[in-house]
Design goal:
alpha/beta, Alpha/beta knot, two-stranded antiparallel ribbon, elongated, binds adenine
């Protein structure tokens, strides 16, 4: 995965990509990141990247021309690319989109907006895909960009030490994760569920699937709505519902497919 990040805070982004998995992915040659300071593309001695909004009002707006120039420079260096505009107005970022970004062959160019937003002509002139990381506003596009890159990179084969880790992440198949335990067996009177110590891999697999369904049902029931359940999942969820002493709250679940 190749990422070109256009930002007013290159130091912040450089620091953030130099830890943990993003660092390891770069060391393994599976992630290539280049960071561009938008101020390098301004044309005044003060390196002005923002200005007051036409029509008045609070806040500052990112100027269009420095960003156009920055994108032109990236195009000259990289050729065709896929442009991502982090924005609260964008389509929701999901695991599916993370998967899509992780498989993108073209360089991904992220424009990190700041201040109250950017001049509308950036959207109009450059197109690109507006993406939101949630229905709230953060101060700039840097954190959303890092969230997207992190979520995508961990799906690239070879980035995670154990290739099955991502396979069982929350959301990978639309369910939340099951609970995890590590040593010791007893912590402050709380014990590891015995099935995990049993060595019975089939029983462990079944328990994990059931607990993933329970977690999803209890914490994010919206994820189960309209979901087509396999016969086995339906059986497990029925057990969960009996244990949780409740009925299908979401309308009857769909019939089985597998
Ligand atoms: N910039 C500011 N808030 C944002 C959000 N929620 N998602 C993406 N970019 C943003």
């Amino acid at each position: 995965m190749h990422c070109e990040i256009l930002t007013l805070f290159p130091g912040f982004v450089r620091e953030a990509v130099s830890y943990s998995m993003l660092k390891r992915a770069q060391e393994k040659g599976l992630l290539h990141v280049r960071i561009h300071d938008i101020r390098d593309y301004t044309d005044d001695p003060h390196r002005t990247a923002d200005d007051a909004p036409y029509g008045g009002g609070a806040g500052m707006i990112m100027k269009a021309e420095p960003l156009f120039r920055a994108v032109d420079a990236v195009r000259a260096q990289c050729g065709a690319f896929r442009l991502i505009l982090p924005s609260p107005q964008g389509e929701p970022f999901t695991q599916r989109l993370a998967q899509d970004l992780s498989r993108e062959e073209r360089p991904l160019v992220f424009i990190c907006g700041h201040y109250e937003g950017f001049d509308e002509r950036i959207r109009l002139g450059l197109g690109g895909q507006e993406v939101s990381i949630g229905d709230y506003v953060v101060t700039g596009g840097e954190l959303p960009t890092l969230v997207m890159i992190d979520a995508a990179v961990r799906l690239i084969p070879g980035v995670l030490g154990d290739p099955t880790s991502a396979q069982y992440d929350s959301f990978t198949d639309g369910l939340l994760d099951y609970p995890h335990y590590t040593r010791p067996v007893r912590v402050r009177g709380l014990e590891v569920p015995p099935v995990l110590l049993s060595g019975n891999h089939k029983a462990i697999h079944r328990w994990r699937r059931k607990e993933a369904l329970r977690n999803t049902y209890c914490k994010r029931p919206d994820l189960l709505k309209d979901r087509v359940l396999s016969q086995e999942d339906r059986r497990l969820l029925e057990e969960v519902l009996q244990e949780e002493a409740c009925e299908w709250p979401l309308g009857e679940p769909q019939g089985s497919v597998t």
